[in-house]
Protein backbone atom coordinates (compact mmCIF):
# COMPACT_ATOMS: atom_id res chain seq x y z
CA UNK A 1 0.00 0.00 0.00
CA UNK A 2 1.03 3.60 -0.37
CA UNK A 3 0.65 4.42 3.32
CA UNK A 4 4.08 6.05 3.58
CA UNK A 5 3.14 8.50 0.82
CA UNK A 6 -0.01 9.54 2.64
CA UNK A 7 1.73 9.59 6.03
CA UNK A 8 4.03 12.29 4.64
CA UNK A 9 1.05 14.31 3.40
CA UNK A 10 -0.44 14.24 6.90
CA UNK A 11 3.00 14.92 8.44
CA UNK A 12 2.96 11.61 10.30
CA UNK A 13 6.07 9.61 11.15
CA UNK A 14 5.24 6.15 9.90
CA UNK A 15 7.90 3.55 10.64
CA UNK A 16 8.23 0.50 8.46
CA UNK A 17 5.78 -2.03 9.87
CA UNK A 18 6.62 -5.52 11.01
CA UNK A 19 4.75 -7.80 8.61
CA UNK A 20 3.34 -11.02 10.06
CA UNK A 21 1.68 -13.59 7.81
CA UNK A 22 -0.95 -15.91 9.21
CA UNK A 23 -2.26 -19.03 7.51
CA UNK A 24 -5.88 -18.76 8.57
CA UNK A 25 -8.62 -16.14 8.62
CA UNK A 26 -9.94 -17.54 11.91
CA UNK A 27 -10.24 -15.18 14.89
CA UNK A 28 -7.81 -17.20 17.04
CA UNK A 29 -5.11 -16.96 14.35
CA UNK A 30 -5.24 -13.16 14.50
CA UNK A 31 -5.29 -13.14 18.30
CA UNK A 32 -2.30 -15.48 18.55
CA UNK A 33 -0.30 -13.52 15.96
CA UNK A 34 -0.97 -10.23 17.74
CA UNK A 35 -0.07 -11.60 21.17
CA UNK A 36 3.08 -13.29 19.85
CA UNK A 37 4.39 -10.21 18.00
CA UNK A 38 3.40 -7.28 20.20
CA UNK A 39 6.18 -5.32 21.89
CA UNK A 40 6.32 -2.35 24.23
CA UNK A 41 6.99 -0.19 21.16
CA UNK A 42 3.90 -1.31 19.22
CA UNK A 43 1.95 1.84 18.43
CA UNK A 44 -0.79 0.43 16.22
CA UNK A 45 -1.88 -2.88 14.79
CA UNK A 46 -3.10 -3.16 11.19
CA UNK A 47 -4.83 -6.36 10.10
CA UNK A 48 -5.78 -7.38 6.58
CA UNK A 49 -8.98 -9.42 6.74
CA UNK A 50 -10.56 -11.71 4.17
CA UNK A 51 -14.02 -10.76 5.45
CA UNK A 52 -15.54 -8.72 8.24
CA UNK A 53 -16.97 -10.81 11.04
CA UNK A 54 -15.71 -12.71 14.04
CA UNK A 55 -12.06 -11.93 13.35
CA UNK A 56 -12.79 -8.20 13.25
CA UNK A 57 -14.67 -8.39 16.54
CA UNK A 58 -11.92 -10.42 18.21
CA UNK A 59 -9.18 -8.05 17.02
CA UNK A 60 -11.05 -4.98 18.23
CA UNK A 61 -11.77 -6.45 21.68
CA UNK A 62 -8.18 -7.66 22.09
CA UNK A 63 -6.54 -4.46 20.92
CA UNK A 64 -8.88 -1.90 22.45
CA UNK A 65 -10.02 -3.51 25.69
CA UNK A 66 -7.18 -5.86 26.58
CA UNK A 67 -4.04 -4.26 25.13
CA UNK A 68 -5.04 -0.60 24.84
CA UNK A 69 -3.47 -0.32 21.40
CA UNK A 70 -5.29 1.27 18.45
CA UNK A 71 -6.04 -1.08 15.57
CA UNK A 72 -7.01 -0.69 11.94
CA UNK A 73 -8.67 -3.52 10.05
CA UNK A 74 -8.70 -3.48 6.26
CA UNK A 75 -10.61 -5.83 4.00
CA UNK A 76 -8.17 -7.34 1.51
CA UNK A 77 -10.75 -7.13 -1.29
CA UNK A 78 -10.64 -3.33 -0.98
CA UNK A 79 -6.94 -3.35 -1.81
CA UNK A 80 -7.26 -5.13 -5.16
CA UNK A 81 -8.65 -2.32 -7.31
CA UNK A 82 -5.71 -0.26 -8.66
CA UNK A 83 -8.01 2.66 -9.52
CA UNK A 84 -9.16 2.99 -5.89
CA UNK A 85 -5.94 2.16 -4.02
CA UNK A 86 -4.85 5.79 -3.52
CA UNK A 87 -8.23 6.81 -2.17
CA UNK A 88 -8.40 3.79 0.13
CA UNK A 89 -4.85 4.30 1.46
CA UNK A 90 -5.64 7.96 2.12
CA UNK A 91 -8.74 7.01 4.12
CA UNK A 92 -6.83 4.35 6.06
CA UNK A 93 -4.12 6.86 6.97
CA UNK A 94 -6.73 9.40 8.08
CA UNK A 95 -8.36 6.82 10.36
CA UNK A 96 -4.99 5.75 11.76
CA UNK A 97 -4.05 9.37 12.37
CA UNK A 98 -7.25 9.96 14.37
CA UNK A 99 -6.77 6.77 16.37
CA UNK A 100 -3.24 7.87 17.22
CA UNK A 101 -4.56 11.20 18.54
CA UNK A 102 -3.98 13.32 15.45
CA UNK A 103 -6.40 15.72 13.88
CA UNK A 104 -7.84 15.60 10.39
CA UNK A 105 -8.44 19.30 10.06
CA UNK A 106 -8.38 22.47 12.09
CA UNK A 107 -10.72 25.44 12.06
CA UNK A 108 -9.78 28.84 13.38
CA UNK A 109 -12.58 29.96 15.71
CA UNK A 110 -14.17 32.44 15.77
CA UNK A 111 -14.91 32.55 12.07
CA UNK A 112 -16.81 35.62 11.03
CA UNK A 113 -19.62 35.35 8.48
CA UNK A 114 -19.67 31.55 8.51
CA UNK A 115 -22.69 29.28 8.42
CA UNK A 116 -22.42 25.51 8.91
CA UNK A 117 -25.08 23.26 7.37
CA UNK A 118 -25.27 19.50 7.89
CA UNK A 119 -27.36 17.12 5.83
CA UNK A 120 -27.84 13.42 6.41
CA UNK A 121 -29.42 11.14 3.84
CA UNK A 122 -30.67 7.66 4.57
CA UNK A 123 -31.75 5.30 1.80
CA UNK A 124 -34.01 2.32 2.34
CA UNK A 125 -31.74 -0.45 1.10
CA UNK A 126 -34.42 -3.13 1.38
CA UNK A 127 -37.17 -1.65 -0.81
CA UNK A 128 -35.02 0.83 -2.80
CA UNK A 129 -37.60 3.57 -2.13
CA UNK A 130 -36.10 7.02 -2.38
CA UNK A 131 -33.55 6.01 -5.02
CA UNK A 132 -35.55 7.21 -7.99
CA UNK A 133 -36.90 3.75 -8.73
Task: Describe what you observe in this structure.
- The protein has 133 residues and is mainly alpha-helical.
- Helix content is 35%, strand content 8%.
- The chain has four helices and two strands.
- The protein has helices at 3-9, 27-37, 54-67, 85-99; strands at residues 45-49, 71-75.
- Strands 1-2 form a two-stranded parallel ribbon.
- The termini are far apart.
- The mean pLDDT is 83.
Features:
mainly alpha, 133 residues, 4 helices
How much helicity do the residues have?
A: 25-40%
> Beta-strand level of the residues, as a percent range?
5-15%
Provide the spatial order of strands within the biggest beta sheet.
Answer: 1-2
Quote the distance from N terminus to C terminus. Answer: 38 Å
Shape: globular
- State Rg: 19 Å
Multimeric status of the protein = single chain
Strand tally: 2
Averaged pLDDT? 83
Task: Return the structural class.
Answer: mainly alpha
Biggest β-sheet strands, sense, barrel = 2 strands, parallel
Series of secondary-structure elements, N-terminal to C-terminal: HHEHEH
Taking pLDDT < 50 over at least 5 consecutive residues as the criterion, the unreliable ranges are none
Number of helices: 4
Amino acid sequence: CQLNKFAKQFKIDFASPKVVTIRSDQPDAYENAIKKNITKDTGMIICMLQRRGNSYDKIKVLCCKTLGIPSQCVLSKNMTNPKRISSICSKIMQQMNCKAGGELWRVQIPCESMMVVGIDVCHDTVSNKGRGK
